Amino acid sequence: MGAYILRRLLLMIPTIVGIMAISFTVIQFAPGGPVEQVIAQLTGQADSADQRISGGGDLAQQFDDSGSSYRGAQGLDPELIAKLEKQFGFDKPPLTRFLEMMWNYIRFDFGESFFRNTSVLDLIKEKLPVSVSLGIWIMIFSYAISIPLGIRKAVKDGSTFDVWTSGAIIIGYAVPSFLFGILLIVLFAGGSFYNWFPLRGLVSDNFDQLAWWQKPLDYFWHLTLPLISLSLSAFATTTLLTKNSFIEEIKKQYVTTARAKGLNERQVLYGHVFRNAMLIVIASFPGAFISAFFTGSLLIENIFSLDGLGRLGYLSVVNRDYPIVFATLYIFSLLGLFVSLLSDLIYTWIDPRIDFERRDV
């Protein structure tokens, strides 16, 4: 197992370098880099996010008739343009900038934001609690419901209960979380019907003035609609995974043997089947958590105005705040690779019969 872990750790190096290199290359051709944004602000062309990113390419340096390096820079002092390029680090060749970025990232030095005048690491620490709250409660909520429901569906496979719940689950899985979130806002957050839940923030403005027993109520009051929106896909996936895993185990010979020995269905289900059937569900927990933590929170945090990592990443992409964009990409990719390794190790911990070192490659 030690050799397998070492191989996986070594493979993370080219993987993370490849992810960052591809993203860095794509960014070079993205329109409206930070230099163009400052130029647009200086020339009065930046009234909105869409206008700020409508200029020329980031480093394409599309020369116009006046000889300016950036579109929209006509009439500006070339020395000012040079200072802007040096300020954002664009006075160096792309390869040099990429190698310097990767060297800093290896030491977890992510630099400072272009437009927020603070370090990227401090920004991530500041926004992390919101995204962690969403991720943890989504997993608790979805697993607490989907596992018992999946077991019940496996026992009642083919029954009316199974058919109706499968239909509801498929519909819930097909509806995008952000669309369901908008529907909840319309219905329950001051839209066209009721105004039962707040529309923005993780806590109320007077949170510090609330009594100790009111604070958790206020916290969950704000989390209700975002959690319901995000739990749909996780709930459906885990339920069907649990059901299929239990059905597969129920059909095996050891279950028939246990029944022949006189054990009742409850003893067979929870004494023998449960441990084996839950293997794949438990092992998939780290990946499911990372998925709910990072991918699902992007749109939901923006819809409900939750100041977390998803919203931070979105605003950074819109504003072309590249240090934040690349730092979050690096951290998320690194976490994803470690979580993938952790999932494999959990398989071997739960079921010692699994040995990745002996499998044929």
UniProtKB/TrEMBL annotation:
Any one Gene Ontology cellular component term annotated for this protein: plasma membrane
Gene Ontology biological process terms, A to Z: microcin transport; transmembrane transport
Keyword Transmembrane helix in annotation: yes
Membrane topology, record value: Multi-pass membrane protein
Record carries keyword Cell membrane: yes
Domain named ABC transmembrane type-1: residues: 128-343
Compartment(s) where it occurs, according to its Swiss-Prot or TrEMBL record: Cell membrane
Name of the protein this chain belongs to: Microcin C transport system permease protein
